[in-house]
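Task: sequence design from structure.
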């Protein structure tokens, strides 16, 4: 049976940050792992040697794919794609929010919004 897998492409100023992102997220969530990473070899089109050609990883058991390339695109990585996580309790929400926002920028502070009592 077919299934969908969220695919993340890192281009532009985000190219070269794929592995760091994958490692960060797989450490933040339980039941998560990097299943495989294939790197570009010297001379392969689309990327420089050492960049990620294809990666497969899981977060909470859900599969994701990612890649990065040096091609010119009319876009970069966008925050309009979100990964929604249902948490068991407020402690888990706070713990994950703190882990995921550490060293980064918060676009939506953890708060009560009209569509959710606790969202960030």
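Answer:
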């Amino acid at each position: 049976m077919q299934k969908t897998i969220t695919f993340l492409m890192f281009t532009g100023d985000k190219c070269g940050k794929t592995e760091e992102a994958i490692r960060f997220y797989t450490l933040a969530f339980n039941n998560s792992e990097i299943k495989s990473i294939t790197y570009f070899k010297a001379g392969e089109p689309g990327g420089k040697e050492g960049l990620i050609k294809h990666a497969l990883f899981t977060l909470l058991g859900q599969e994701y794919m990612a890649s990065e390339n040096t091609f010119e695109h009319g876009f970069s990585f966008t925050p309009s794609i979100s990964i929604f996580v249902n948490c068991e309790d407020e402690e888990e929400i706070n713990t994950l929010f703190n882990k995921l926002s550490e060293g980064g920028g918060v676009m939506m502070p953890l708060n009560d919004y009209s569509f959710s009592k606790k969202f960030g």
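The helical segments are 18-28, 90-101.
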